[in-house]
Amino acid sequence: MTAAIEVIGLTKTYGDLRAVDGVDLTVGEGEFVGILGPNGAGKTTLLEMVEGLREPTAGSASVLGLPAWPRNAALLPRIGVQLQASSFFERLTAREQIHTFASLYGVAASRADEWLERVGLVEKADSRVEQLSGGQAQRLSIACALVHDPEVVFLDEPTAALDPQARRNLWDLLSGINDSGRTVVLTTHYMDEAEALADRVAIMDHGKLLVFDTPAALIHGLDAPTRITLTDGEVLTTREPAVEIARLAEQSRLDGVRVQTGTLEDVFLDLTGREYRA
How do residues 6-24 score in pLDDT, each as one tens digit? Predict the structure, then answer.
C-alpha cells in the first residue's frame, strides 16, 4: 500500500504539556481514516502539523511524499483542508466565497457552482455568509476545501454543527469523494460516523496514539458480550449469542428481538475512560 501520509515520531509540546506525544501513523492512498479522542486528546494539533499549519517540536510528517513542514507551496494545490472553525471573506455571498476559493486554484466558476449544488446550498448562493446557519456555513466550508479536487482531504469535525439529516447527506458526499480515489482523514466525536465511514480508526488520548485499526478489528479485540433485547424489554447478556438465539427460536420469541454486539463507542470508552472532559 503506497503511503499518502507518513507520520514519524510527531511531537508538539507547550512548556510541560505534550499535546502530541511521539505519534507514528501511516495512511495509505485512497484510505478513509477517522481520528477519535476526548477533548484535548491532541487530534486537531496532530492534523494541523500534518497539514503544515503548525511546526512540530520533534518528528516529521509527509503528505504525498512531500514534507509538510516548512509549509510546502508545492503541496497546497494537492490537499484540501476544512478547519474546525470556518473562516470566510467578509460581506461576500456563498457563491462569491466559493468562486474566490476556486479562482485561487484556477478552477472554473462553473465547477464551483457544481459544489454548491453538491452540498445543498444552491438556494443560499446569494446569501451572505453571516446570514447562513451554522450547518450551512459548515457545508460551505467543506465545499471550499474540495473545490479544487484535492488528492488528500483533511476534515476537522465536519459534521459538528449539522442536524441528523444533513449529517447523513454529508456522509454520502464524503463516501463518494473517497470512492473516487481520494484519501480522507477526519476527526470526529461521533462514533457512528467513524464506524460507518472509516476504513481504519485511530484513537488518541493525552497526545498519544492508543490504537489504529479497522473498526471491526477494534470491536472484536474488545471481546464485549452480546446484548439481546426482547420485545418485553428483557435484556440478555451472553458470550454465546448463537446458543441464546437458538433457545429463543425454540420458544418462538424472536419477533422484534434486537441483537447488539460491542460498538466502537465501547472500545473508545474502554480506552479513554468515562470521566467527563471539559
Answer: 999 999 999 999 999 999 9
